Amino acid sequence: MKVAYWPGCVSRGFTPELHGSMAKVAPLLDIELVELDRACCTGAGVIAEHNQELADTLNARTFALAQQVPGAELMMNICSTCQGAQSECQERLDANSAYREHVNSTLSSEGLSYEFDPARPLTNKNFLWLLVEEIGLDALRSRVRRPLTNLKVGPFYGCYIVRPRKRLGIDAEHRRDNYLHDVIDALGGTVIDYAGMRKCCGFPIITMNKEASLKQAGRHLGDAVDAEADCLVTPCPLCHLNLDLQQPLAEKTVGRQLDMPVLHLPQLVGLALGLDPKELGLSRHVVRPTSVIDWSASVVASTAA
Amino acid sequence: MPEAHDRPPEQFKLRLRRYNPESGEAPYWDEHTVELEPHRSVLEGVLQARDRFDGSIGIRCSCRQAICGSCGVRVNGEPALACHTHLDAALSSAPDGVIEIEPMGNMPVIKDLIVDMDAVHWKKIRRVTPWLLAKEPVPEREYLVSKEAMVDVTQSMACIQCGACVSDCLAMEVDPGFIGPAALAKAYRFVGDPRDAEQYERLNDLAQDPQGIFDCTHCFKCVEACPKDVNPMGQIMRLRRIATADQKIVDQNNGERHEAAFTGLIRGNGLLWEAELLPRSYGGNSWFGKFAPAAGKELLSSLPTIVKALLRGKVTPLGALKPHRIPSGDLKSVRAIFDKVESRDERYELNLYIVGEDETGEPVAVAAGEGTTASEPTSGPADAAPSGESIVASSPPPPDPGPPSAVGREGESEQAAPGPEDDSENEAAEGSNQ
Q1: What is the ipTM, given to two decimal places?
Q2: Rounded to whole angstroms, how far apart are CA atoms B52 and B280?
Q3: Most confident of the ranges A234-243, B347-356, B366-375
Q4: What gap in Å lies between CA B155 and CA A99, rounded to an integer?
Q5: Residue A175's closest CA among A150, A194, A198?
Q6: Among candidates B228, B241, B205, which has minimal Cα distance to B129?
Q7: Distance CA B423, CA B420 (A)
């Protein structure tokens, strides 16, 4: 399937392995990525905090660009924070036609317009949602070349992709707040539940209250250690920054050794689809995913034997 | 299948968290099977268990119709009003077929399902000076205010002080001194009130406090928890917006600098430049920000992290020094959007709680909280001025602007009629808590 692909900023900045691993995984799932390289940052909630209309207009511009991609079935992102910020703007734009017209009048100087058809609204899905709803867990399972057998994976959802439920389309039929569980299971891994899996990583306040921020990251990582997870997986690069990049500082804040590798979702999928850990950028993490690499080495060794 | 209220009584298993701090015993779980119609509430279930099986079960309640805010608990791990949660709905979210009921979080347990609201929630409410500091001179009759201005604060006035948002606040979980969602929503109720004389003082106080408006982690927990659609996090964002944009408050917590740096970097490049965001958040919004003492100190403490990131190839020196940017034509368009939107005389802020959603897809008139009306989207604030539309603040409240989507039949009928006297119901709630 062809998708209008919004990679986000951090996936091309401080977590380049995320964008890179998505590019490797997409062809294996028959996803054609048409990158929205003209679009700008979603604002991650900060621009909306500064000026709501500004955030809505910038994101309406991105939606308009996505609607222009010929043959694209939907828009896809790989960042929970982008998903949350875009869903919030889209909710306002779709709900109120007068407001939409107002925003479109700003875009008109560039010849762009965000179109809303109630029968066929713009669909914008995080890779996680696309995996489960468009590709399907059975199809995903059938493509697994190296099942994650005996790998204990803790899902880390974060906030933006699970709350608020109504805005994000989460209900009894669409258990989007459980999809990481479903995907880990489909890839053959063992799901590890722990207290912090749907809590905040602390990243949004890292510059405002560093101690509280690192305490959040450290606590959730510690919960995962206590639950004996081998690694975590997250659909959000900002969560990855606090959980991986800042993990050495989080260790100091909570006063315990953590050594918890954190994988991006496409990396975990890529491993199960048979890709090499190095080409998925696993060597670029601050916390070396030794447990995961050892696991993959032992799987390769046993296949060879 | 018959409607829920036509169905005969069924059996529901309840698992209650029991704890009596005075006993010296550890908390434990207690299970009871109750028999009630599926549309009855979790509260009725707990009360039946208390009446039939164990008179010592502690739960606080009063109105039983989602207005007094007394029976806040956690049902299957999520904060809720026990009287506002149907048994059949609770069962559907119970992983093992047993409805699990616990006391709320972030507050000490007095007994079983009763938490100490005074120790946490009410203390925080008092922290924000929750009354009107009237503008002088006080008019001989009543203050005249615009209808829009009063409608704007109705969302924060819908709070019933149940503490559900406090229970699950993730910032408070690691930083118990955080003023928190309920109290900050209450603060907006007065910051947004045109009759209040101390908007700047209130905001400066809340912005400078390290546990004030910039301590919120933006996790949406309170938005999800609130049974009345108050959107406390949204109110906190509005406090930040008014503090930084209107009152020009530069706080000691990097809140204003972070927002300015983030917004400035997107205007400059279209995409985020992380290596610049951090120093600018500490040192100020320019390329020279990194040379400010505060930024230097922060960079020094982050040095081990930076070195590690460079060693792993996560960050390349070039990537850190040079921003990634969208194509120049697009950057020009993005900057034009910034210029146009930011040059408006008043911000245009659409609040779906107030305006509701289109039902027909036809344009609807918008009474936006701030700024222009949507029927004349590009008009200036003069057009939006409520000429001859002023309402008297002490007159009967405007029609119930209630949430656009029903929060349940009970919720709709009891939506607090918005009015300046909103604290009366809170006193009732507090009274029932005693």
Answers
A1: 0.95
A2: 63
A3: A234-243
A4: 20
A5: A198
A6: B205
A7: 8
d(Cα B146, Cα B294) in Å, to the nearest integer?
Answer: 43
Alpha-carbon distance of B263 to A41, in angstroms, equals 10
Please, what is the angle between helix B255-269 and helix B328-342, to 10°? Answer: 140
Residue B218 to residue A37, Cβ atoms within 8 A: no
Average pLDDT for residues B50-68, to the nearest whole number?
Answer: 97
Conformational region of residue B28, where left means phi above 0, alpha means psi within -120 to 50, and beta covers everything else: beta
**In Å, how far is B384's CA from the nearest CA of chain A?**
15
First to last CA, chain A: 37
Assess whether pLDDT exceeds 70 at residue B265. yes
Stretch (H or E) spanning A155: strand A152-155
Sheet arrangement for strand B99-102: B28-36, B10-18, B99-102, B72-75, B78-81
**CB-CB under 8 Å, B174 with A47:** no
Amino acid (one-letter) located at A237 = P
CB contact under 8 A, A208 and B215: yes
Q: Please, which contacts does B262-266 make with residues 24 or more away whose CB atoms are closer than 8 Å?
A: B262/A44, B262/A46, B262/A47, B262/A50, B263/A46, B263/A47, B263/A50, B265/B323, B266/A40, B266/A41, B266/A43, B266/A47, B266/A58, B266/B334
**Range of weakest confidence among A133-142, B56-65, B289-298:** B289-298
User: Which residues are within 8 A (CB) of B184 and not within 5 positions of it... i.e. 6 or more apart?
Assistant: B128, B206, B212, B213, B216, B232, B235, B236, B239
CA Rg value for chain B: 25
Give per-residue pLDDT as tens, A256-296. 999 999 999 999 999 999 999 999 999 999 999 988 887 77
Confidence of residue B323 (pLDDT cuts 50, 70, 90): confident
CA distances from A264 to A28, A234, A237, B422 (A): 17, 5, 7, 47
Q: Are A157 and A240 in contact (CB under 8 A)?
A: no
Residues listed for chain B: 434
Q: Which residues numbered 321-350 in B keep a CB inside 8 Å of some CB on A?
A: 324, 326-327, 330, 333-334, 336-338, 340-342, 344, 347-350
List, for residues B76-106, the tens digit of each pLDDT value. 999 999 999 999 999 999 999 999 999 999 9
Crossing angle (nearest 10°) for helices B199-208 and B181-191 = 150
Q: Do B312 and A240 contact (CB within 8 A), yes or no?
A: no
B174 vs A40, A92, A219: nearest CB:
A219
Give this prediction's pTM: 0.88
Residue B157: strand, helix, or coil: helix
Residues of A in contact with B262 (CB under 8 A): 44, 46-47, 50
A102-A104-A106-A111 Cα dihedral, nearest 10 degrees? -160
CA torsion through residues A30, A31, A32, A33, sign:
negative
pLDDT for position B425 = 40
- Between CA B185 and CA B239 the distance in angstroms is 9
